Structures are given as C-alpha cells and as structure tokens.
Amino acid sequence: MNEPRTLTMDWIRDEPRGDLYAFYDELREEAPIYRVSRPSGLETWLVTRYDDALAVLNDTRFGKQPDRIEQAFRDAGFPVSDEDNGSPLRRTMLTTDPPDHTRLRGLVNRAFTPRRINALRPRIEEITNGLLDAMAPTGETDLITAFAFPLPITVITELLGIPASDRDQFRVWVDEMLDTPPEERLKADRPLNGYLRDLVARRREQIDWSLPGDAQPDLVSSLIVARDREDRLDEEELISMIALLLVAGYITTVNLIGNGMLALFRRPDQMRLLQERPELITSAVEEFLRFDGPVTQILGRVPTEDVVLDGVRIPEGSIVTVVLASADHDPRRFDNPDTLDITRSRNDHLAFGHGIHFCLGAPLARLEGQIAIGSLVKRFPDISLAVPVEELRYRRPAGFLRALDRLPVRFTPTATERMVPDVALAR
C-alpha cells in the first residue's frame, strides 16, 4: 500500500499560482492521489489521473452522502444550509444518491433527450442570429456579456417558463453566488431562493390542472404538477430542481463558448481550420470541452467503505474531489494533451462527468456550443481578442468553474442582416 502525498492548501479558497494546467500537470505526474489538509481542519482527497477519475465516477461505492459532507463542512466552520436557511441548490440530482437521485432525474430526463434537444435547434439558431445581428455594427464588444451569456439564459428560461424580463437579474444573483466566499455564500443564495419560491407560488395559480404534467407548457409547471398532484417530490426538492436547471442550464454553456473562443484566439491555425471546414464544429466542441472545460473539478464523492485506488487506501467517509481538468490533460489517455486539436478523433473527455451523475444537460450544451461558435466564426471571420491575453481574468472564488470574467473582442463591423434581435430574445 502506498502512502498518499499531502498538500496543505485550502482548495476552496486558494487559486493555484501561474498556469492552471501546468499546476495540474505537476500534481498529476508527482502522484495520482493526494490528501489535502486545509487550514480550517477540513480534509479532502484529490484524484488527478484519468483512469482513477473514471473509476471514482463510475464506482457505486463513491456516493454523494450529502449529510456526511454537510457535517464535515459544519465541523470545519463553514456555514451550511438547513431546512429554514438554505441554498436553493441544496437537494438536487447533484447532491443525492439513489433512490432519490433516480427519482429526481426521472422527473426531467425526458425533457433533455437528444431528440427533444434537437427540436430546439431552430430556436437556438434564431436566438444566435439575433445576438450576432446586434453585435455586427459595433465592431467591438465583450463576448461574454453580448453573446455567451444571453444565448443559453434565453434558451433555459424559455424551457423552464421563466419570464424574459427576469433574465438579467438572474445573472446578477448567480454571479453573486459564484463570487461570494464560502463563509458568506448562504447570504448570497437568498435572493434567488426567494425569487423561485415566489415564482412557484404565482405559477400554481396559473396552472391548468386538467392537463397532466407532460402536457404542461413548461418545465416549472410540469414540476409543480409532479409535486402537488403526483407527490413525486417535496417543496424543497421542487425549488432545488428549478434552481439547478436554471443555473447549470446556462453557466456551463457560457463557459464553453468563452473558453472555446479563447482557445481559438490563441491558436489561429485552428481558427482558420474551423472556418475552412465548418463540418469540424462537432469535434471542435468536444475538444474545447476537453482542452479547457467549463468545470474543473467535482467535489463531494464519499466512499461507503475503504477503497484502494492506484495503490492508495482512501478511508470510508472521506470527501473526494475529482479534478476533471487534470484528468482531461492526462498523457496516459490523450496524445499531446496540451495541444488544441479540433480534429481529435479519440476524445472521451470527462467534462460532463461520467456514470449516473453524467450531466443531464450535456446534449443541450453541446448543441448550443456548436451553433454559437460555428455561427460566430462564420459571421465574423476576422474576430480576434481586443486585449492582450495576460489581461484576461477568471472568476474566483468559485474554483470549480473555469469561467472568464470577460472576453473583449474586435471584428470588422458590418450591417445588420436581420432586424429581429429583440423579437428573437423576448419570447
């Protein structure tokens, strides 16, 4: 049995210095498993290599055990949500084990099948073209604010049935949630929590109760029917489900578009290749997900018994973090992993996780990424960074996300081709 390497750092608050992927390269090559000792007293374990990461994500012995995780954070002095003072994301598919996970995922699984998602293609293209039309005359903009954010937030709020007038407010609330230090996060969670409870109360008064859940016009109404008439989830689970679909439904795609475009800006040869061969957009999006994915790590797998992984014994009840960004750059799995190659054929990355918790919204994120980036590089063939890459900053302390704060770009301004952006976005 091998002794695990030990890191002393607060993985929640500390940002690795220098290049993130160089830091992960050092960790991964030095050891596969680390025990992380935090100043707060909270101890966690890091999994850095691809095969080990895949094993943890697929092994049913590594569960979520939300009560165990909450207690560990509470013991370390972090404020933890409870029934009366909680995060709207407390009881979701991401934080539960079967059978609760199976039940909750089954409530919305049919809305995210590839067939259902592909039916959204015309609407996603319409929204994309409206945003590009609005950008066209300007010649310079922040791509995150003007494009990467409004596209997925429009799609997911329409799917849920949330008023278009509330979209900008969501960005403010979610940004505050993501940018707030852990010890203050419960306070930052409250506005979204309150809004969703009011939304559910208002929607209950508007529902046509003669229709079954599957026939309701939007997901929020369907979930309320499942709660009130079918007793398939409780009120806290209802609020948490809506919050998860809203937050996860757009934030992954925002980062996919932003990180993908930055990767192309830094590799002009790959930008030219994509413009010359637009049919490569499918493999290109998979490469963006692997090369600089939206989510860097998955925190919170807990073994139900002692598990030996790569010769290291991880004790029962430990909190395990799977470092996706490290696993997806593991040279044991990927040839030339630090090279962006949009033609890469073998690309079984872990950007969306794996196993029973594989991202439900992956088909939607992929489709939005393909349409968004493919349309963008076609519409503005000379699009480029408007600032030196050294000036770009990533969002912290939300260390589990690889999220650009802004992405200033410039391009040759053109006349708007379709005068419909307001119509496209306001449905």
Helix-strand layout with pairing:
Layout (H helix, E strand, L loop, with lengths): L4 E4 L11 H11 L2 E5 L5 E5 L2 H9 L3 E2 L2 H10 L24 H9 L5 H5 L2 H15 L4 E3 H6 L1 H11 L6 H13 L5 H22 L12 H10 L6 H32 L1 H9 L4 H11 L6 E6 L3 E3 L2 E3 L4 E4 L1 H4 L34 H18 L4 E2 L22 E3 L10 H5 L2
Radius of gyration: 22 Å
**Quaternary structure classification:** single chain
How does CATH name the architecture?
A: Orthogonal Bundle
Helix/strand order? EHEEHEHHHHEHHHHHHHHEEEEHHEEH
- Secondary structure: number of strands: 11
The main β sheet shows up as: 6 strands, mixed
**Could you give the distance between the termini?**
60 Å
Q: According to CATH, what is the topology?
A: Cytochrome p450
The helix count comes to 17
Major beta sheet, strand line-up: 1-2-3-9-6-4
| Overall number of structural domains | 1
- CATH superfamily, by name, is Cytochrome P450
Overall, the morphology is globular
Which blocks of ≥5 consecutive residues have pLDDT under 50? 419-423
Short description:
Helices cover 47% and strands 9% of the residues.
Explain this structure.
This protein has one domain: Cytochrome P450 (Cytochrome p450), CATH 1.10.630. It is built from 17 helices and eleven strands. The protein has helices at 20-30, 50-58, 66-75, 100-108, 114-118, 121-135, 143-148, 150-160, 167-179, 185-206, 219-228, 235-266, 268-276, 281-291, 324-327, 362-379, 421-425; strands at 5-8, 33-37, 43-47, 62-63, 140-142, 298-303, 307-309, 312-314, 319-322, 384-385, 408-410. The strands form three sheets. Strands 1-2-3-9-6-4 form a six-stranded mixed sheet, with helices on both faces. A three-stranded antiparallel sheet has the order 5-11-10. Strands 7-8 form a two-stranded antiparallel ribbon. It is globular.
